[in-house]
Automatic annotation (TrEMBL):
InterPro entries: ABC_transp_permease (IPR001851), BCAA_transport_permease (IPR052157). Belongs to the binding-protein-dependent transport system permease family. LivHM subfamily. One of its GO terms (molecular function) is transmembrane transporter activity. It is a multi-pass membrane protein. This is Amino acid/amide ABC transporter membrane protein 1, HAAT family. Keywords: Amino-acid transport, Cell membrane, Membrane, Transmembrane, Transmembrane helix, Transport. The keyword Transmembrane applies. It is found in: Cell membrane. GO terms for biological process: amino acid transport. Its main location: membrane. The chain crosses the membrane at residues 6-29, 36-56, 62-85, 97-122, 142-162, 194-216, 223-253, 273-296.
Length: 308
């Protein structure tokens, strides 16, 4: 593998990892803070992608569509929490799984009705089109570099908010002693609604920034939800820092592994067979890592404070 290809794969892995973090951050807050299993979190990633597609077509401006998509994703998250999720807080995990799985089916079918089953795409905004020279032999798309930078900014901002602000303190306290927080005059239900809304907006934002890179299609959030659960298990349920570290690890392992495993198999098998088997074996690496973490660090790499 050449140095240029290695650098490209590292940057692609970093970008993919930060995309996973945006999804896993909201999921780990909802799951860790509220103990609520929200399988519909991945479909909110799909909703974000379709929102940016629709608003870009309506307004003709990617940047205006970005703002409208984030606001709408937030409102959808708050609406789902108010109409469906809050009635399931005290129910069993099985009830939560069944109800949120129903939402997945409903929204996937709604996407087909509104936009059709065909794969859609949007163009990269003109301001961020083109590429930039990083080394003598490496040019990398500006849009991908910007998504890496934005992902890092969001990660730092979210970590500081959860760790050092009053709202973050209440969210952490509400996850362990909701009765005490409620006795102090804090509306715990409203606090949980904020967590849901922010989580939905983060997942929607991931869909928005992914839309110019990946295909927009019904069910696009289903597979990435599974990987997001892997991320929060590796990082530690309820831990923003853990989700960030785990997401970067998963992104790099998944991206580099596909090339390295294929090259390693090429030493044993012919090129055609190696190209067929390599990606399939490489996709197993993140699950092997998850299994190892569960054996040696059951609470995750960076468990949340007070995790039991």
């Amino acid at each position: 593998m050449s140095l240029t290809l290695f650098l490209i794969l590292c940057l692609n892995g970093l970008q993919y990892g930060l995309l996973l973090f945006l999804i896993a951050a909201g999921l780990t807050l909802v799951f860790g803070v509220m103990g609520f299993i929200n399988l519909a979190h991945g479909v909110q990633y799909m909703v974000g992608a379709y929102l940016i597609f629709a608003f870009t077509g309506l307004t003709g401006s990617f940047w205006l569509a970005l703002v409208l998509s984030l606001i709408t994703a937030l409102l959808i998250g708050l609406l789902l929490e108010y109409v469906v999720f809050r009635h399931l807080y005290s129910r069993s995990h099985l009830d939560q799984v069944l109800a949120t799985f129903g939402i997945i089916i409903f929204l996937n079918e709604l996407a087909k009705v509104l936009f059709g089953p065909a794969t859609l795409s949007i163009d990269t905004p003109e301001l961020l089109s083109g590429s930039i020279q990083l080394t003598e032999q490496l040019r990398y798309p500006v849009y991908r570099l910007v998504t890496i930078g934005v992902g890092l900014v969001v990660a730092v901002g979210l970590f500081l908010t959860i760790s050092y602000t009053r709202t973050g303190m209440l969210i952490r306290a509400g996850s362990t002693t909701p009765e005490m927080v409620s006795a102090l005059g804090v509306n715990v239900k409203q606090l949980f609604q904020i967590v849901f809304g922010v989580g939905a907006m983060l997942a929607g934002f991931a869909g928005v920034i992914a839309a110019p890179i990946f295909a927009i299609e019904p069910g696009m959030g289903d597979n990435i939800l599974i990987i997001a659960f892997v991320v929060i298990i590796i990082g530690g349920v309820g831990s923003i820092g853990g989700a960030f570290v785990a997401a970067i690890l998963v992104g790099l392992i998944d991206t580099l592994g596909r090339s390295l495993v294929t090259e390693a198999l090429g030493l044993v098998f012919n090129a055609s067979m190696a190209n067929q088997i390599g990606p399939a074996l490489a996709s197993m690496l993140i699950y092997i890592l998850m299994a190892a973490i569960l054996v040696f660090r059951p609470k995750g790499l960076l468990p949340a404070k007070g995790a039991t």
